[in-house]
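Continuing from the previous page of notes. For each protein in this section, the sequence appears first, followed by its structure tokens. Read the first protein now.
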Amino acid sequence: MSDRLSIAALCKGLFISLAFLLVFALVFSLIAYFFTITNDTLLLLGNITLAVAIFAGAFSAARKAGKKGLLHGITLGIIFLIVMIILTLLWGDMSWHILLEKAGLTILAGTIGGILGIR
């Protein structure tokens, strides 16, 4: 076995993260549509969605790789963060404060998921 990161594991983890993000976003969108929810609650639900999606992807990536869970988890968090930044620059608007908050959240969730994903 090599000592490098598993690209296949990271791709699977990224796919899992995106799938979780899509499902949670759909569920929370339906909740927000049918019920009156404050902006603070929407931000909280968004952060929970992001953290769970990254955690699940990092857990899956580390599980598939079978080693270097911390490194796989952090790398997945960074990849996801880069994708978020690119999409935000293209279609959205994000302040530095929010960007730093999301960065910390993705790295933390990726780290925990990666560590716990090792068998």
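Done with the first. The second protein uses the same format. Note its length before scrolling.
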Amino acid sequence: MPDNKYNPPLRYFNLLGASELRQGRLMVAFVVIVVVLVGVIYNQAKINIGLQETIRELQDKRVMIGYPNAEGVFISEKQIPERHIVAFVTTFLDNYYNFTPESATDNAEEALRMMSPRLRAAQEEGLKIVARQSIEQQITQVFAKSSPLKVELQQNLGYVVSFTGERHRATMGNSYRKTKYQIKILIKPVKPSKHFEWAVVVDDFMIQEI
């Protein structure tokens, strides 16, 4: 019979074997959990990327914008309502054509703000000259529409607003000129922002004396 007094007890071997078995099972379970988590994270990432792409696509194609009605309440509509174009053009005319020596500078700045960058670059110097002349020569100008605003949607171009009107100019309180015009204004939609709060801009206009 072999002498076992110098060998570790058999129960130690049993404990060591059980410990190694538990560690092996824990390692397998850990690997499985890691694989599952990686799969879940990967799928969530794919879903999130797809969702973000969908959101961007919807934002690019978004057509619902709030436009104020006659009471000033904003209503979401798919197409720019005619009343909004008429209100925008009326406000633009009030700033571009109507001014006093006291308001000429502010009116010119507001009219420029309602233009597209291209038109603003072309009109800025001339408007500032008119504003300065109004201040220096005490010129007051009033524009009165003599026909309703006619709004037409031109495909791939924008909205063309046409009308006739009279420009009255006075200096030192004395009226010295009245001129009649046929006017067409090209309005283009833009993404609404703090600068372009109307969601449209004046992109071009034609003025013909009649």
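What the second structure shows: The longest helix spans residues 10-61. Strands lie at 65-68, 74-77, 139-145, 150-154, 158-171, 174-189, 200-209. We return to this in next week's lecture.
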